[in-house]
Amino acid sequence: MLKSLYNRFFDISDLEISNRHNNFNVIRFFAAVMVIYGHMCSLIGIGQFSVMKQAVSGLGVKIFFVISGYLITKSFLSDSNALRYSIKRFFRIMPGLAVIVVLTTFIFGPILTDLSTKEYFANPETYAYLKNILFHPVYTLPGVFGQNPYPYAVNGSLWSLPVEVFMYLLMPLTIVIFRKFNIEKIGMILGFVVSFLLYIYILKFHNDLVIVVWGNSLVSGLSLVPLFYLGSLFTFKKVRNLLNLQWAVAIMVILLLFDYSWFKSEILLTFALPYLIFSFALQSRPVFAKIFSVNDYSYGLYLYGFLIQQIIVRKFGVLGLPLNYYFIVSLAVTFVFAVLSWHLVEKPCQKFSKNLLKKING
Q1: Distance CA 171, CA 156 (A)
Q2: Under DSSP, is residue 339 helix (H, G, I), strand (E, B) or coil?
Q3: What is the C-alpha to C-alpha distance for residues 140 and 163, in angstroms, rounded to an integer?
Q4: 3-state SS assignment for residue 212
Q5: Three-class HEC string of 22-49
Q6: Chain Cα centroid distance, residue 66
Q7: How far apart are CA 73 and CA 149, in angstroms?
Q8: Residues 272, 255 contacting (CB under 8 angstroms)
Q9: Residue 187 CB coordination number (10 Å)
């Protein structure tokens, strides 16, 4: 009887929802644009535009993690084979990252550095930048962007990728462990509750805590873990049945009408933002579904945006032009690199992974 009630509440029987019959790619595209816009503010030395005390670039990253939590969990629940899962995840995230890190180290770096070419390649910090391929954030290259308003930071966007990969491992582990007791969905809920309460506790009582793990801030990474878990909960049919775009918009409008502390904003958006995202993404008639339904440029935008923006600032300086000028130019140039990344690197590698999986499956 208990098992029957459990399965009834946590029904995930319709995991076959089409990956293309939704608005996820459009949302991810605009999340990447939000990151670029927010970073542009910082890179020309002005304060970031914020929503409910949240920097717009930070909101963009949070949107990525909410959606990723849903899609990764849905993928693993559909096929829990560890090898096939690992291959799909590897070829989704690694090729694009490896290419930009190599290009930055050996092409952009020597061109942009204030050092001589000999000095640049003789400096051990040059090769330390390659740690980014192992998802170990290294933000500087010798002599690069030292005169920019936001000095020496080559690609600040890479900080979130170790957290993403960590969740690629933690989420399946959570499911596998609790699946032994036939309560894997309870494990997903506990994952959210524990990570959320831990994050809130640190914010409330240890806001100045500085712990670096694998080149990254533990607190910054922990801020994204609950969102990933919360996104995973929308694989439950009963949870998706609660979605309503009209209610979602109304809730967000009401929240925007009031002024909150950053702490309260963090709590409210943890719940309101995913509800809005999935209410829009999983509309019964997703009118934006065809946009980028075949080509997904969001990852390329995320990877190249910060670097391209720093190059533009270094080349032209801060001319006192309106923010939108810098933003539009940087977005246009970044979009070109994102298109090239998708068609020359990401898409071919995903095609290769599919063929590899076919051979493995026999």
Answers
A1: 25
A2: helix
A3: 20
A4: strand
A5: CCHHHHHHHHHHHHHHHHHHHHCCCCCC
A6: 8
A7: 40
A8: yes
A9: 20
Q: Would you give the distance in Å from CA 274 to the centre of its chain?
A: 14
- Give the CA distances from residue 278 to residues 24, 29, 248, in Å, rounded to whole numbers and listed in that order: 9, 15, 9
Phi, psi for residue 166 in degrees, rounded to 5:
-60, -40
Q: How many CB atoms lie within 10 A of CB 199?
A: 21
Q: How far apart, in whole angstroms, are the C-alpha atoms of residue 161 and residue 270?
A: 20
pTM attached to this predicted model? 0.94
- Nearest partner of 229 among 184, 181, 196, 267, judged by Cα: 196
Alpha-carbon distance of 214 to 220, in angstroms, equals 12
Sign of CA dihedral 52, 331, 157, 196: positive
User: In whole angstroms, what is the distance from residue 78 CA to residue 61 CA?
Assistant: 26
Sign of CA dihedral 175, 176, 177, 180: positive
Rounded to 5°, angle at Cα 267 from 34 and 212: 70
- In order along its 362 residues, the chain shows pLDDT tens digits of 445 544 554 554 444 455 568 999 999 999 999 999 999 999 999 988 888 889 999 999 999 999 999 999 999 999 999 999 999 999 999 999 999 999 999 999 999 999 999 999 999 999 999 999 999 999 999 999 999 999 999 999 999 999 999 999 999 999 999 999 989 999 999 999 999 999 999 999 998 888 988 888 999 999 999 999 999 999 999 999 999 999 999 999 999 998 889 999 999 999 999 999 999 999 888 888 888 888 999 999 999 999 999 999 999 887 778 899 999 999 999 999 999 999 999 999 999 999 999 998 87
How far apart CA 14 and CA 298 sit, in angstroms, is: 27
C-beta of residue 304 within 8 angstroms of C-beta of residue 157: no
Instruction: Answer whether 75's CB lies under 8 Å from 171's CB.
Output: no
CA distance 122 to 143: 12
How many H helices and E strands in the chain?
A: 17, 4
